Amino acid sequence: MSAPDSTAGHGRLLAGVTWAVLLLGLWLWGRGITDGSGASSAPTTGDIAAVGRPLGVPLPPPHDPIEGAVPKRVEIPSIGIEAPVVARGLDKDGAIEPPSFDTPQTVGWYGDGTEPGAKGPALLVGHVDTETRPAVFYGLSAARPGAKIDITRADGTVAEFTVDDVQVFTRARFDADKAYGPRKDGRAELRLITCGGTFDRKTHSYDANVVVSAYLTGDKPAGDRA
What we know:
The chain has one domain (7-35, 45-221): Sortase (Sortase, Chain: A), CATH 2.40.260.10. Helices cover 7% and strands 34% of the residues. It has 2 helices and 9 strands, in the order H-E-E-E-E-E-E-E-H-E-E. The chain has helices at 7-16, 176-180; strands at residues 48-50, 71-76, 81-88, 107-110, 120-125, 148-153, 157-170, 188-200, 205-221. An 8-stranded mixed barrel has the order 2-3-4-5-8-9-7-6.
């Protein structure tokens, strides 16, 4: 994800982010994809490199889904991410339109999809970098299972999520259903996505996507820091 200060930079945005692999036509929103355990907590190999959940890392029980509301802000204290969230639609190719490079520190939420806190996976996307500096999700790959994610919502509440999985999906054999479908039926979930892997200067693209998965573990009033 790069700054549009040149034609090549614009190409890096379109190819590097590879928003086309996020086609919602390939994402089966209501379909469960679990293997019976509910989450991909073990390292995987081949086309998916996973941080997974280290043995012995306790995770809290899921909170029942709550009424959905439009997200306004995302905070991940453990990796220093704090950013506004704006609703985004689909581009002409049917992919999620990322935030503008004029606002590289802004996160995009697929506004026609699940609202954070409601049942199913809500989808947040952000740039990893620009042509000149890191962008909002530059440090996303450093997130680890157990980390907390707070989503401040338009109804004055905060939906609290806990990371349970971090994976890097290569573009070569990308499986949108596995990346973005629900990990466990009935849960309120969150996906945060950015570019990953290696940047190819010839094609102006990254060869992978970082996908952080989290699930709802609580909610509170927006002013409550307890």
